[in-house]
Specification:
Blueprint: H1 2-5, H2 10-37, H3 44-47, H4 58-75, H5 77-87, E1 93-94, H6 107-135, H7 137-147, H8 162-169, H9 171-178, E2 181-182, H10 183-201, H11 220-229, H12 244-247, H13 262-267, H14 273-277, H15 314-324
Helix pairs in contact: 2-4, 2-5, 2-10, 4-8, 5-9, 6-7, 6-10
Bound molecules: zinc ion (3 copies).
């Protein structure tokens, strides 16, 4: 399907994919943001599942959107090259009208196997690349821009520097060079499945249906924790989907005895109605005012002043200052 609909020129394919990608990101993140962050939508029943009891400032959310927009054009370069190569017969990528009835490639079972393989191999890739960003200063210099969002909203899913966005999307080019892959399945897995799970991870809320204490999947708690606590030299939970990769390496797991998942916090009595009454939900409707986007420094992606300091231990504050600085020093 995708191969047929893509314009034949490289530039127009790239522009089209960038427009589609940005639209998917903005529409899907906006829907979740509205239901869980908009002032009149936040209820006690919802809030008691919020990992960080506080809400980010509207400026911080604006920075997430700006950062996403500043890098997304690089995320669409690998899939554009991939489509170009498949159209010119230079890659193993292929298209078929309906993959489910494509008996040459195994029909529905073939779709399931490709989907699972793409998920597992991509998850390993994303984990490995992400971990580099927390181990080596050169990589951290790019990746630290994602960690400015210590209390992320659903708009932070790909709020990365352009280099990180490019490498995150590189499997879309590399995998079809190595093995035959149906482009529609690959794009669906990245554009719908991964992005949906990315929204869940940056939701800011947890769900009783996937406890942080489950042994297999990274939950929204783990990625919240990652944003708030992981910095250069502290690669806690750099995994995306599966926990197994972080479980296999040193320093990949945050100490369980310090768990502050929402269920542990509820047990400590920290999600009471009294506590909720003190919570200030910012007026995010300013995000709909064009003047808010025209203010001084608004389009820098670093305009917000809210910082992570209050939540951190003394040791973590030292790391946090490295986060804001040039970040050129390796910290062990
Ligand atoms: Zn993140
Ligand atoms: Zn990270
Ligand atoms: Zn817990």
């Amino acid at each position: 399907m995708l191969c047929e609909f893509s314009p034949s020129s490289f530039l127009s394919t790239w522009l089209l994919l960038t427009a589609i990608g940005f639209s998917i990101v903005m529409v899907s993140s906006s829907i979740v943001f509205y239901h869980y962050y908009w002032k009149n939508m936040v209820t006690f029943e919802k809030w008691k599942w919020k990992t960080n009891p506080k809400f980010p400032s509207p400026e911080k959310v604006r920075d997430e959107i700006v950062q996403t927009a500043k890098g997304i054009y690089t995320a669409t370069i690998p899939p554009t090259i991939s489509i170009y190569l498949s159209q010119t017969g230079k890659s193993k990528a292929y298209c078929s009208g309906n993959p489910l009835t494509d008996s040459d490639h195994g029909g529905a079972m073939g779709v399931l196997i490709q989907f699972l393989l793409i998920v597992i191999v991509s998850d390993f890739w994303e984990w490995g690349y992400h971990r580099l960003g927390h181990v080596y200063p050169r990589f951290w210099n790019f990746h630290k821009h994602h960690h400015v969002f210590f209390n992320p909203s659903p708009f932070a899913v790909i709020a990365d520097e352009y280099v990180d966005q490019f490498f995150r999307a590189l499997p879309l080019l590399v995998f079809p060079m190595i093995v035959p892959i149906n482009m529609d399945i690959m794009f669906f897995t990245y554009g719908a499945f991964f992005y949906a799970y990315g929204i869940y991870l940056h939701w800011g809320y947890e769900t009783p249906y996937l406890s942080a204490h489950n042994p297999i999947f990274n939950s929204a708690y783990h990625h919240y924790l990652h944003h708030a606590k992981a910095i250069l030299g502290k690669p806690y939970h750099t995994g995306f989907f599966f926990k197994i990769w972080d479980n296999c390496v040193s320093g990949g797991v945050y100490p369980i005895e310090k768990c502050f998942c929402v269920q542990c916090e509820q047990k400590k009595g920290k999600r009471s109605e009294e506590a909720f009454k003190k919570v200030v939900v910012p007026d995010y409707s300013v995000l709909l005012n064009w003047r808010f986007w025209m203010g001084r420094g608004a389009l820098s992606g670093t305009s917000a002043s809210d910082e992570n300091i209050a939540e951190l231990t003394e040791e973590e504050k030292v790391f946090a200052s490295a986060k804001r600085g040039a970040g050129g020093k390796k910290v062990n």
